[in-house]
Write a structure and sequence with these properties.
heterodimer, A: mainly beta, about 0% helix, about 50% strand, globular, B: mainly beta, seven-stranded mixed sheet, four-stranded antiparallel sheet, 11 strands
Chain lengths: ~120, ~120
């Protein structure tokens, strides 16, 4: 079955530091890959996505590249801000799930804290 | 983006009672809603998928008689935890999808259930 493994947290960085959160996956077929972010007290929000190999998703300064050869989708940001403090979830969906049972498989989440 | 709201955000109940959690899509019609459960430091585990007007599809290992899901309208799904026990204490999150099968998922803020 599908699975997602992401870096254990918590991760604590100073403002303007470089961020990497590793994510690897196991899936059949050709999954789409996602990063979701959950700010304190809020629901999960889609941060970025990539639907095929070598695609790069980007949003709000965050980037992740779909690497089929290494089955990875690592999240990066060149200079983090205090407002980036949140829990980040890597997730995948199988293209072949289809129909009304389109499902996401999540990693455990990584808590990021950015200090001023 | 679209808004999904859950209520209540926190609930404490006595063992043996039943608790209902509501999930509403506020500005779109949700053809499909998903219910997840999240344990501390664990990933989100899909419990069931509900389509408006039909019975929910439960994941393996989820007791459908214990976790009753109703999706009576295109903007409301409810999860009822029946005869709750302390081991049912958890964070429950719903998500909703509008339109076609690969449409973006929007997540609620989550509901924390504590069973005494």
């Amino acid at each position: 079955g599908n699975s997602v493994t992401q870096m254990e947290g918590p991760v604590t960085l100073s403002e303007e530091a470089f961020l990497t959160i590793n994510c690897t996956y196991t899936a059949t077929g050709y999954p789409s890959l996602f990063w979701y972010v959950q700010y304190p007290g809020e629901g999960l929000q889609l941060l970025l996505k990539a639907t095929k190999a070598d695609d790069k998703g980007s949003n709000k300064g965050f980037e992740a590249t779909y690497r089929k050869e290494t089955t990875s989708f690592h999240l990066e940001k060149g200079s983090v801000q205090v407002s980036d403090s949140a829990v980040y979830f890597c997730a995948l969906s199988s293209v072949h799930s289809g129909g009304s049972n389109y499902k996401l498989t999540f990693g455990k989440g990584t808590l990021l804290t950015v200090n001023p | 983006g679209a808004v999904v709201s859950q209520h209540p955000s926190r609930v404490i109940c006595k063992s043996g009672t039943s608790v209902k959690i509501e999930c509403r899509s506020l500005d779109f019609q949700a053809t499909t809603m998903f219910w997840y459960r999240q344990f501390p430091k664990q990933s989100l585990m899909l419990m069931a998928t509900s389509n408006e007007g039909s019975k929910a599809t439960y994941e393996q290992g989820v007791e459908k008689d214990k976790f009753l899901i109703n999706h009576a309208s295109l903007t409301l799904s409810t999860l009822t935890v029946t005869s709750a026990h302390p081991e049912d204490s958890s964070f429950y999150i719903c998500s909703a999808r509008a339109g076609h099968s690969t449409g973006e998922l929007f997540f609620g803020e989550g509901s924390r259930l504590t069973v005494l």
